[in-house]
């Protein structure tokens, strides 16, 4: 028993959870070094080699020296309030009329970048409309729109470097478009043909491009967050001048992965931008049923992460905030949390009808009065960079290009049978070669039992 | 070397794990002898033919008997499994700057079971990374780091806790290469103790071999000896695919003889190959991890009853070395599978299916499956002992398979 007590005393309290295993260790490994060989830290924040003893040298009645910094003693019994009273402000540059808010600070955007941003926002909007219809016509099995979140998609991508690693959720295909992914490549993925980089293995909208540093979309919610921290840690170890960026929704912040990722990123000082698209709805769950905190931004501080709330339907605000966040993340190797307030104008996916659980008025309000594209268009038009003729030409040409891409994607052959067995491992193992051989024989022997559109 | 290796003292009993070395040595000598006889035959025709011209090893090549001294030279040292794992990680970290170790207590505390002893001092906190306590978190971080080119070795304090990170392992690590069309490889190793230890009950004793081995995209290894541990962990770290590396807490402190080859920093074992620990002709016994030792002990006991058991150390659970298993069963015509995990959908069940599919007509007796009891592990030592396979269980099963469950005298 003394062993147990001794162990519990010397090891950090967090070890207690695993004490049975640790106790066994002492029993089964006599040559294990004694815990006392190294100075044991109780709740350390110091790095290896740093002294932790200084914290206990001073003794004061007013102040407690505690890992993490000095803590004042206070006579009142004071509970922290569950809220700040006033909600955290939302950074905005453009007002609803597309005019810059007086006194707003923002990162200047050149005409060239500004126009590229607009074109991509429109492209994304048109693409969503057409591919959504394609799903409705039964040409693809599934689709997810980004409607209402075009500014988040494009403006954040514009503020990043193409070297930055993107760990998307699934409502950020605009980042790919910005980086040069073509509508043909989009269509190839959605139709799962042999030109798809995912070789027809993933359901529609699960895009991925190694070339464009865009990691393949992961369906389970929140898995990409800790992964982004890990990739950011790789960037840090390699001394790269880049950061990782991960996108997620308000619902995703309830996942354990969200909390783990933020905590790890802070502790590991990883250059990562956490971009929360707070669009009000996690399928049918409104944010009021998702969390009781003041949204997501407030949580950054609890993890020791610099955070900002931004108007997600204001392209200039998103651009400026991400630009600044990136500079801090890369320059100071630290995580940054961005919460963009927006609204999911479309249904969650093609498997959802959101009018069943939210008022149509609400959707219409965000669709018309708060549309990020029209707000941004007012600004560029005010600058004299855009006109109605250019608008209809752009929309027509995107529409034409995508319809053409869809026709091509539909005609391209589906992936061949051999692709069924590739990439499970780096090298195809013998059991899979065997299975492939058996399948091939079976297909040849009973062609009528198998689909005709699988090249063998 | 400096990993606590010690010489096998002359005259010391050769442990069962050493027997393969003796066998290999004898094979080597046999082939050398044949080669030298051939040369001598050739030399008889030549003018110059004296033993002086032969190389020293050829002069006494006719001597078939392997001396204890020769064995102790070939298997110069003994090493604990803990040191084997430690040295494997150490060497791979030294060889490849992309390899790093992460997990709870791997740094300052040197690993819950001291497997990472000394590595923090040697490689610093950036490469021996203590993490906060969130299995899902650090597993996801490892997966992300692997996506982007690092080669993380992620330690679970026990594989029981890997269940908190199962989504990251299955949905991300195992599937990403396939889902991305080969764009994202995940060179990561998840390692830690697996299966029953002693007195640690249900949430520290579960064997996850069958769980992970049922998932394509993963490779699942489970070492028994120090040679296994070193060679397979090095292979796992070098492998481009995600590898689940199932260690055993009880084996950490156990010493096994290791040859100079095994101690070489280039030593590596092939993934997917089983090892015949002991040749036999009457019954095949498959086992992995700690159960290999039990099976070897059972084989000793069986030999006294005239039953010659062939012991297969699976080493790799996925891919499974079906060829070795089937070849052995075709020779012995009888099979006993041994594992600590649960029987239903277990490793033994898979081996049984493999043999029924490929060698059904060779079987002379029903396959015997020895597995842990179909219950979460109890804590009380008496119940715990009843819940995991014992040497006697293996002996009885092998005898049943050989229709020798009754004493030989009575049968005669």
From TrEMBL, chain A:
SUPFAM superfamilies: Thiamin diphosphate-binding fold (THDP-binding) (SSF52518). Its cofactor is thiamine diphosphate. Belongs to the BCKDHA family. This is 3-methyl-2-oxobutanoate dehydrogenase (2-methylpropanoyl-transferring). The keyword Metal-binding applies. Its EC number is 1.2.4.4. Residues 118-416 form the Dehydrogenase E1 component domain. Heterotetramer of alpha and beta chains. PANTHER family: 2-OXOISOVALERATE DEHYDROGENASE SUBUNIT ALPHA, MITOCHONDRIAL. InterPro entries: Alpha-ketoacid_DH_E1_comp, DH_E1, THDP-binding. Keywords: Metal-binding, Mitochondrion, Oxidoreductase, Potassium, Transit peptide. GO terms for cellular component: mitochondrial matrix. GO terms for biological process: branched-chain amino acid catabolic process. The keyword Mitochondrion applies. One of its GO terms (molecular function) is branched-chain 2-oxo acid dehydrogenase activity. It comes from the Eukaryota. It catalyses: N(6)-[(R)-lipoyl]-L-lysyl-[protein] + 3-methyl-2-oxobutanoate + H(+) = N(6)-[(R)-S(8)-2-methylpropanoyldihydrolipoyl]-L-lysyl-[protein] + CO2. It is an enzyme of class 1 (oxidoreductase). Coiled coil: none annotated. It is found in: Mitochondrion matrix.
Automatic annotation (TrEMBL), chain B:
Its EC number is 1.2.4.1. Gene3D superfamilies: 3.40.50.920, 3.40.50.970. It catalyses: N(6)-[(R)-lipoyl]-L-lysyl-[protein] + pyruvate + H(+) = N(6)-[(R)-S(8)-acetyldihydrolipoyl]-L-lysyl-[protein] + CO2. It is found in: Mitochondrion matrix. One of its GO terms (molecular function) is metal ion binding. Keywords: Metal-binding, Mitochondrion, Oxidoreductase, Potassium, Pyruvate, Thiamine pyrophosphate, Transit peptide. GO terms for cellular component: mitochondrial matrix. One of its GO terms (biological process) is pyruvate decarboxylation to acetyl-CoA. Residues 24-37 have a biased composition (Basic and acidic residues). Residues 79-254 form the Transketolase-like pyrimidine-binding domain. It is an enzyme of class 1 (oxidoreductase). SMART domains: Transket_pyr. The pyruvate dehydrogenase complex catalyzes the overall conversion of pyruvate to acetyl-CoA and CO2. The pyruvate dehydrogenase complex catalyzes the overall conversion of pyruvate to acetyl-CoA and CO(2). It contains multiple copies of three enzymatic components: pyruvate dehydrogenase (E1), dihydrolipoamide acetyltransferase (E2) and lipoamide dehydrogenase (E3). Tetramer of 2 alpha and 2 beta subunits. This is Pyruvate dehydrogenase E1 component subunit beta. It comes from Apostasia shenzhenica.
């Amino acid at each position: 028993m003394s062993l147990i007590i001794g162990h519990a005393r010397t090891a950090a309290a967090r070890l207690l959870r695993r004490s049975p295993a640790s106790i066994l260790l002492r029993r089964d490994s006599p040559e294990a070094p004694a815990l006392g060989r190294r100075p044991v830290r109780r709740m350390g924040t110091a790095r290896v080699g740093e002294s932790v003893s200084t914290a206990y040298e001073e003794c004061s009645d007013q102040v407690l020296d505690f890992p993490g910094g000095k803590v004042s003693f206070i006579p009142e019994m004071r509970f922290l309030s569950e809220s700040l009273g006033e909600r955290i402000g939302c950074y905005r540059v453009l007002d609803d009329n597309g005019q810059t808010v007086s006194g707003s600070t923002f990162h200047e955007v050149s005409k060239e970048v500004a126009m590229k941003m607009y074109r991509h926002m429109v492209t994304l909007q048109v693409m969503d409309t057409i591919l959504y219809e394609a799903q409705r016509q039964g040409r693809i099995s599934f689709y997810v729109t980004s409607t209402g979140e075009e500014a988040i998609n494009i403006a954040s991508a514009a503020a990043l470097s193409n070297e930055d690693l993107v760990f998307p959720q699934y409502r950020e295909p605009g980042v790919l478009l910005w980086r040069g992914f073509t509508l043909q490549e989009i269509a190839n993925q959605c139709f799962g043909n042999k030109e798809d980089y995912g070789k027809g293995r993933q359901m529609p909208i699960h895009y991925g491009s190694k070339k464009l540093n865009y990691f393949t979309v992961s369906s389970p919610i929140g898995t990409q967050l800790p992964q982004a921290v890990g990739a950011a840690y790789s960037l840090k170890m390699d001394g790269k001048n880049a950061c990782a960026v991960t996108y997620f929704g308000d619902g995703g912040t309830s996942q354990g992965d969200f909390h783990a990722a933020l905590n790890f990123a802070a502790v590991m000082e990883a250059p990562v931008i956490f971009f929360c698209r707070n669009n009000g709805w996690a399928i049918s769950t409104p944010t009021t049923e998702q969390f009781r905190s003041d949204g997501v931004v407030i949580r950054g501080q609890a993890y020791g992460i610099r955070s900002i709330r931004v108007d997600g339907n204001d392209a200039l605000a998103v651009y400026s905030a991400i630009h600044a966040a990136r500079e801090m993340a890369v320059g100071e190797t630290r995580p940054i949390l961005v919460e963009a307030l927006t609204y999911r104008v479309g249904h969650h996916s093609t498997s959802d009808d959101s009018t069943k659980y939210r008022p149509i008025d609400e959707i219409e309000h965000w669709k018309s009065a708060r549309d990020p594209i029209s707000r941004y268009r007012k600004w560029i038009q005010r600058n004299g960079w855009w006109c109605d003729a250019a608008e209809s030409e752009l929309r027509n040409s995107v529409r034409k290009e995508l319809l053409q891409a869809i026709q091509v994607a539909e005609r391209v052959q589906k992936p061949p049978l051999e692709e069924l067995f590739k990439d499970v491992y780096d090298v195809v193992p013998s059991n899979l070669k065997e299975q492939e051989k058996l399948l091939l024989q079976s297909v040849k022997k009973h062609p009528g039992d198998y689909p005709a559109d699988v090249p063998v | 070397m400096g990993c606590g290796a010690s010489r096998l003292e002359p005259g010391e009993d050769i442990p069962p794990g050493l027997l393969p070395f003796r066998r290999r040595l004898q094979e080597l000598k046999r082939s050398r002898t044949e080669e030298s006889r051939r040369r001598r035959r050739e030399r008889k025709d030549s003018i110059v033919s004296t033993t002086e011209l032969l190389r020293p090893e050829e002069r006494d090549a006719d001597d078939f008997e392997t001396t204890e001294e020769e064995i102790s030279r070939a298997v110069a040292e003994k090493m604990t499994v803990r040191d084997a794992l430690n040295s494997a990680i150490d060497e791979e970290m030294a060889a490849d700057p992309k390899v790093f170790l992460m997990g709870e207590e791997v740094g300052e505390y040197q690993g819950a079971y001291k497997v990472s002893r000394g590595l923090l001092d040697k490689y610093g906190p950036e490469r021996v990374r203590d993490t906060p306590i969130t299995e899902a978190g650090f597993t996801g971080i490892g997966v992300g780091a692997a996506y982007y080119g690092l080669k993380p070795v992620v330690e679970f304090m026990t594989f029981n806790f890997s269940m908190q990170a199962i989504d990251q392992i299955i949905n991300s690590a195992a599937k990403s290469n396939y889902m991305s069309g080969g764009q994202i490889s995940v060179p990561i190793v998840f390692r830690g103790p697996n299966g029953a230890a002693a007195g640690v009950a249900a949430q520290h004793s579960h064997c996850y071999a069958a769980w992970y081995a049922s998932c394509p995209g993963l490779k699942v290894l489970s070492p028994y000896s120090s040679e296994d541990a070193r060679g397979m962990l090095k292979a796992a770290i070098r492998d481009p695919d995600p590898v689940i590396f199932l260690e055993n807490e009880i084996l950490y402190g156990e010493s096994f003889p290791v040859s100079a080859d095994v101690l070489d920093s280039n030593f590596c074992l092939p993934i997917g190959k089983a090892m015949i620990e002991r040749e036999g002709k009457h019954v095949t016994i498959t086992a992995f991890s700690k159960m290999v030792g039990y099976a070897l002990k059972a084989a000793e006991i069986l030999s006294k009853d005239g039953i010659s058991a062939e012991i297969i150390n699976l080493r790799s659970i996925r891919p499974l070395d079906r060829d070795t298993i089937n070849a052995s069963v075709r020779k012995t015509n009888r099979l006993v599978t041994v594992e600590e995990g649960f029987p239903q959908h277990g490793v033994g069940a898979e081996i049984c299916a493999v043999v029924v599919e490929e060698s059904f007509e060779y079987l002379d007796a029903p396959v015997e499956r020895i597995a842990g009891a179909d219950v979460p592990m109890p804590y009380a030592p008496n119940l715990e002992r009843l819940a995991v396979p014992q040497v006697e269980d293996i002996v009885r099963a092998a005898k049943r398979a050989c229709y020798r469950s009754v004493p030989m005298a009575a049968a005669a």
